[in-house]
């Protein structure tokens, strides 16, 4: 199929946009929900059940998550396998970042298919008494655990570094200093999301790091708070 320059440009813009909205936003939501595992089995299971009860959830998932991911994935594979290397056009670090963007994208194809197959499309998982325990059981296999680590780091790199590409493609960072700032921001997003993602993975193995100073008293599971004036 031959595309005109305009059509190709529009497709690239749609590819770039879907990477941030909705896929990037979904990744943030996903890491947030998974972090509930730090608060224990009951907290995570309640969060998963809450999501499953969203009205029209099947349609929202299909149109708001699967369709954009399928589009971004298919076009991403085409770009990653046919796009020209841009060696020499940019600095050394930039080239590496761009190469890793493509490599992480290809890794994500395998990871996303594996991960959704093992959870969202697995009837044992969907009907399990405890989603938390089910995932904990899965990652007790070292090979599965290792693949989850690779998948999480790839997704966080791909979104973090992808935000830099997004800022360039949409003209949000044009000057030198603005591009340097965008690059720093992208690496900060990558690091923070990686820590959050890996910590939530460890939480499913009961080994997440959740120090007291990151909690608030009202977040603890306890009975009604009793003040001197009575119950509240
Ligand atoms: C966690 C899921 C994913 C997220 C959050 C995501 C997000 C993004 C973002 C934000 C960008 C930057 C857009 C831009 O440069 O303007 C991007 C670019 C890219 N994505 Fe993804 N993506 C995901 C999955 C995938 C998958 C599965 C592939 C398959 C190969 C892929 C391939 C690519 C490629 C090749 C680019 C660079 C496009 C270019 O050359 O300009 N992505 N992605």
User: Overall mean pLDDT score?
Assistant: 93
Roughly what fraction of the amino acids lie in strands? under 5%
How many DSSP E strands? 2
CATH fold node name: 3 helical TM bundles of succinate and fumarate reductases
- Give the overall shape, derived from the CA principal axes: globular
Percent range for helical residues? over 70%
Helix and strand sequence: HHHHHHHHEE
Q: What is the radius of gyration computed over CA atoms, rounded to a whole number of angstroms?
A: 21 Å
Number of helices: 8
Pfam family, one: Sdh_cyt
Protein name: Succinate dehydrogenase
Main location: membrane
GO molecular function: metal ion binding
Describe this structure in words.
This protein is mainly alpha-helical and 232 residues long. The protein has a single domain (5-82, 89-209), classed as Fumarate reductase/succinate dehydrogenase, transmembrane subunit (3 helical TM bundles of succinate and fumarate reductases). It is 71% helix and 2% strand. The protein is built from 8 helices and 2 strands. It has helices at 5-35, 41-52, 57-82, 92-118, 123-126, 131-138, 142-169, 176-204, and strands at residues 226-227, 230-231. The protein is globular. The termini are far apart. The chain binds protoporphyrin IX containing FE. Pfam families: Sdh_cyt (PF01127).
